[in-house]
Amino acid sequence: MDEDAFSTLTWLVEAGAGDAIGETPVNRLVSPPPAPTPMARPAAPPPRSAATAPAPPPDSDAIGSAQSAAASANDLAELKAALESYDGCALKRTATTTVFADGTPSCGILFIGEAPGRDEDRVGKPFVGRAGQLLDKMLLSIGLDRASNAYITNVINWRPPDNRDPSPEEAAQCLPFLRRHIELANPELIVLLGAVAARHVVGTSEGIMKSRGRWLEYRVGDRMVPLMPTLHPAYLLRQPAHKKLAWRDLQAIRARMETIGLPRIPMQANT
Ligand code: URA
């Protein structure tokens, strides 16, 4: 690629145009071919009334096959392979990679975010972009770090186009994998990052500003595991004034880690 083309591309990406919308480039500087005259157009089908429109195809097959694929996984490697071969979620078709998890699965504390963004889709790991950098700082502030004692995944395993909110159907297709993921990782403590995780994992209907900072419980096998929803790092980047609320939640999480006996990495000045 020549230098001009490269700098134009860089500029477009920085301006937020991160997605290709077609396979073939379009030269918008030449006039498009003339549109067909109205006479040449095939007659449009009559509009359908809501009563006659076919219902969207049922997704119970997609959810059912997610459930059986997830249930048949005996460990995290099998679950990752099952997810990678699952084709029931349309998000997979527009994503580059399947984003499974990052960190230390056996560490006892699991963080669950929403869905991969552009950077995560490229790298294939959760929380590697700006929000991920903030998450790493938040983890470090309570003696956690992915390489030693934190484990991270998302509700959704494929990037939704343009980072839109995942639909309830997409979440329902990914949730069997997440629920099995939680069983296999078998954490002692779960932290939900943001409203989407709170809605889909524990069915919170109130906003995250209400549910954050409150301890709930999640059943893993025959154990009830403490779970706390907190603010999503991407939200904190947009609303830095709310970092103090997240800080309070982190202190409560740190205290709970101590009660449970979860290890912390040796801390620097901010212990
Ligand atoms: N936001 C999320 O919720 N998850 C990621 O992996 C990245 C950003």
Strand percentage lies at: 5-15%
- Following the backbone from N to C, one meets helices and strands in this order, namely HHHHEEHHEHEHHEEHH
Strand order of the largest sheet: 1-3-2-4-6-5
The second-level CATH architecture is 3-Layer(aba) Sandwich
> What would CATH call the homologous superfamily?
Uracil-DNA glycosylase-like domain
What is the global morphology?
globular
**Mind telling me the C-alpha Rg?**
22 Å
Mean pLDDT: 85
Offer a quick outline of the entry:
With 271 residues, the chain is α/β, with parallel strands linked by helices.
Describe the structure.
This protein has 271 residues and is an alpha/beta fold. It has one domain (61-260): Uracil-DNA glycosylase-like domain (Uracil-DNA Glycosylase, subunit E), CATH 3.40.470.10. The protein has 11 helices and 6 strands. It has helices at 3-14, 60-71, 76-85, 91-94, 118-123, 130-141, 168-185, 195-202, 208-211, 233-238, 243-260, and strands at residues 101-103, 109-113, 151-154, 189-193, 216-220, 223-230. Strands 1-3-2-4-6-5 form a 6-stranded mixed β-sheet, sandwiched between helices. Helix 2 packs parallel to helix 7 (168-185). The protein is globular. Residues 2-19 and 26-52 have low confidence and may be disordered. The structure holds uracil. Uracil (URA) is lined by residues 113-117, 120, 126-127, 131-132, 154, 234.
SSE arrangement:
Elements: H1 3-14, H2 60-71, H3 76-85, H4 91-94, E1 101-103, E2 109-113, H5 118-123, H6 130-141, E3 151-154, H7 168-185, E4 189-193, H8 195-202, H9 208-211, E5 216-220, E6 223-230, H10 233-238, H11 243-260
Parallel strand pairs: 2-3, 2-4, 4-6
Antiparallel strand pairs: 1-3, 5-6
Helix pairs in contact: 2-7
Bound molecules: uracil.
